[in-house]
């Protein structure tokens, strides 16, 4: 069962920072003669995304607690709505969030997530 994304954090991402990269589902094998053999490894590709959000300092602290403690350093998945498909999906953080100071009390956080395939 996936965790619930904290209600105190944004329920949206910066669409301009959403970068979705599906992995190839193909595997290529060299043959002793003739063309390479190509086949599907699996039917659904792993999908990695880069996510950006604007946060204030309180939200950043909450995000770090969610990452370090609640999701156990990213080992547990959480549910978040895909910003383009508008569909709730389970995700897992691949690394700790990165912070970019924008000045004042606003920060941009960049995260890398992977879609959990069930």
Question: How does this model look, in words?
Answer:
- With 118 residues, the chain is mostly beta strands.
- The chain has one domain: Elongation Factor Tu (Ef-tu), domain 3, CATH 2.40.30.
- It is built from one helix and nine strands.
- Strands 1, 2, 5, 6, 7, 8 and 9 form a seven-stranded mixed β-sheet that branches. The protein has a two-stranded antiparallel sheet with strand order 3-4.
- The chain is elongated and about 65 Å long.
- The N and C termini lie close together (11 Å).
- The model has no long low-confidence stretch (mean pLDDT 91).
Q: How are helices and strands ordered from N to C?
A: EEEEEHEEEE
Shape: elongated
Q: How much of the residues is beta strand, in percent?
A: 35-45%
By secondary-structure content and strand pairing, the structural class works out as mainly beta
Main CATH class: Mainly Beta
Work out the count of structural domains.
1
**CATH architecture level-2 label:** Beta Barrel
Sheet of most strands: 7 strands, mixed
CATH topology: Elongation Factor Tu (Ef-tu), domain 3
Number of strands: 9
H/I helix tally: 1
Average predicted confidence as pLDDT = 91
Please estimate the helix content.
10-25%
| Low-confidence runs | none
Q: What is the terminal separation in angstroms? A: 11 Å
Radius of gyration: 18 Å
């Amino acid at each position: 069962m996936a965790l619930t994304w904290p209600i105190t954090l944004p329920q949206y991402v910066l669409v301009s920072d959403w970068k979705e990269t599906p992995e190839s589902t193909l595997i290529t094998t060299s043959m002793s003669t003739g063309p390479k053999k190509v086949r599907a490894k699996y039917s659904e590709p792993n999908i990695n995304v880069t996510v950006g959000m604007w946060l204030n300092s309180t939200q950043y602290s909450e995000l770090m607690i969610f990452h370090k403690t609640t999701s156990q350093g990213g080992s547990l998945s959480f549910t978040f709505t895909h910003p383009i498909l508008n569909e709730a999906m389970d995700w897992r953080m691949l690394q700790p969030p990165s912070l970019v100071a924008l000045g004042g009390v606003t920060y941009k956080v960049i995260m890398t997530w992977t879609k959990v395939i069930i």
